[in-house]
Amino acid sequence: MVLVAPSMLAADFLRLEKEVELVNRCGDLFHLDIMDGTFVPNISFGFPVVHAIAGAAKKPMDAHLMIVNPGKYIERFAGEGISMLSFHLEAAREETGALLEKIRGFGMKAGLAINPDIPVERLFPYLDSLDYVLIMSVFAGFGGQKFMAESLDRIRTVKEEIRRRGLDVQIEVDGGIGRDNAAALSDAGADILVAGSSVFKAEDPCAAIEYIRVP
Ligand code: DX5
Ligand code: ZN
User: Fold this and answer.
1) How far is the CA of 105 from the centre of ligand 2 (A)?
2) Residues 70-119: pLDDT tens digits?
3) pLDDT single digits (tens) 165-209
4) Which of 4, 33, 115, 192 has most ligand 1 atoms within 8 Å of CB, for mutation?
5) What domains are there in the chain, each with its CATH number?
């Protein structure tokens, strides 16, 4: 069984309290997408919204930074009570190792995210010093995109390496996920599935979460 992390990017912000309660009741984690308009072409939301969600969240918060200079904000996210914090390998480059260590130093789980056009082998040197990898199954930047089926092989490759080295590293997958691909993703080795549109746009969001958790 996988954990389901509803992506708040797809929530109805006019009814944020109701949406947070929905995740408290039916989800496993809050997935918070932070976009800066520079690393990705889109801007999502920032600290005022994270703070509001944090005040009502009863499930752990998982923040996904799609920003340049992710190191600049690690302490602030820790201060908001974030449990899991990931940033993109493409944004951090040679700072990657130091940032993972800094995230852990603040008591958060450290995650490394990667876009679909970067070979997953680029994650391997960091597997000993992180808690989870975030494999993007769409290009980071927008909700509601189509799942890229090539992601399944990428998950298998990373899972195999984690097993071979006997590591305790989780695989989170993000983008275009719903009931049609959840079974294949968990078979391939995913531990956490992020879902935005398929949850918040569903007639029955709790049922949609359950279909992803137990496909
Ligand atoms: C994309 C974000 C995703 C997105 C997922 O850049 O990282 O978390 O919100 O949304 P859906 O599930 O609609 O693809
Ligand atoms: Zn995300």
Assistant:
1) 23
2) 999 999 999 999 999 999 999 999 999 999 999 999 999 999 999 999 99
3) 999 999 999 999 999 999 999 999 999 999 999 999 999 999 999
4) 33
5) 3-213 (3.20.20.70)
Answer yes or no: is the C-beta of 6 below 6 A from any ligand 1 atom: no
Element (H, E) at 99: helix 96-105
- Residues 65 and 69: their CA atoms lie apart, in Å, by 10
Q: pTM of the full predicted structure?
A: 0.98
Give the whole-angstrom CA distance, residue 101 versus residue 107.
10
What distance in angstroms lies between residue 32's CA and the mean position of ligand 2's atoms?
A: 7
- Tokens in use for 57? 């969240």
Burial of 146 by CB count in 10 Å (0-12 exposed, 13-18 middle, 19+ buried)? exposed
